[in-house]
Design brief:
single chain; about 130 residues; mainly alpha; DUF423 domain-containing protein; membrane; DUF423; transmembrane helix; transmembrane
């Protein structure tokens, strides 16, 4: 599980760096300040959770079973939260109206909050 978690974190990190650079250079010219700030929020939260996965993946304070649940919560959270923010922030650049998926942003946030709370509980319950 550690390998899968660390690899997922590394992939999320690469994607966050690429999207951050894309936002800072290419999107800066075509998005409003508000849209750019929203896009950057998606990148920041993706990177925060990249680091979180690296920590959880390499710690012995959390069981393998708990790591699996945390990984699923973070992956879903990043996809729903950051992914929907990316689409919503760039909505004006496509012919597809992504505003209909706006409801999944807070669901993604709940997954991310759940991952942190689950980790907290898993560390407390680990009696090693």
């Amino acid at each position: 599980m550690e390998r899968k978690m660390v690899l997922t974190a590394l992939l999320f990190g690469v994607i966050a760096i690429v999207l951050g650079a894309f936002g800072a250079h290419a999107l800066k010219k075509v998005l409003s300040t508000e849209q750019l700030i929203a896009f950057e929020t998606g990148v920041k939260y993706q990177m925060y959770h990249t680091l979180f996965l690296l920590f959880v993946g390499t710690t012995t304070l959390v069981t393998e079973k708990a790591k699996r649940t945390i990984l699923y919560l973070v992956v879903l959270g990043v996809l729903f939260f950051s992914g929907s923010i990316y689409l919503l922030a760039t909505n004006d650049l496509t012919s597809i109206d992504f505003r209909a998926i706006g409801f999944i942003t807070p669901i993604g946030g709940l997954f991310l909050i759940g991952a942190w709370l689950f980790t907290f509980i898993a560390v407390i319950n680990n009696k090693r």
